[in-house]
Amino acid sequence: DPRGDGWGGPGYRLRDERTPRAFDRGAVGMALTGPDTAGSQFFIALSRQPQLDGVYTRFAHLVGDDGVLDRLEPGDRIEAVRFVP
Questions:
Q1: What are the φ and ψ backbone dihedral angles of 53, each rounded to 5 degrees?
Q2: What pLDDT shows up at residue 4?
Q3: Domains of the chain as residue ranges with CATH
Q4: Is the separation of the CB atoms in 28 and 58 below 8 Å?
Q5: What's the rounded Cα separation, in Å, for the pair 85 and 72?
């Protein structure tokens, strides 16, 4: 969210890429406002969310200590991302 208010977007939209992968604890998905509206906002599942399966694009999953999920607070910033093949 470039505007920092929870409503902004990057100025482009991504097509949905739904998969049957489960939104379990630590899953990362793209936020949507409708079909093909993903952009710069995403969410992290803090617990199993079966209602999201096949509806949202799951593109990542937390690797390692999932205790960090319990320490997340609104406004926290991502300091690093590492891609694991």
A1: -60, 130
A2: 72
A3: 1-74 (2.40.100.10)
A4: yes
A5: 25
* pLDDT, position 2: 67
Read off the pLDDT of residues 36-65 as tens digits, 9 standing for 90 and up.
Answer: 887 778 899 999 999 999 988 999 998 888
Inform me whether the pLDDT recorded for 30 exceeds 70. yes
pTM of the predicted structure, to 2 decimals: 0.78
Task: Give 71: exposed, middle or buried? Use CB within 10 Å, 0-12, 13-18, 19+.
Answer: exposed
Q: What is the DSSP string of 59-84?
A: EEE--S-TTHHHH--TT---------
Structure tokens at 5: 């208010």
Alpha carbon distance 9, 7 (integer Å): 7
Question: What sign does the dihedral 27-33-38-40 (CA atoms) show?
Answer: negative
pLDDT at 27 over 90: yes
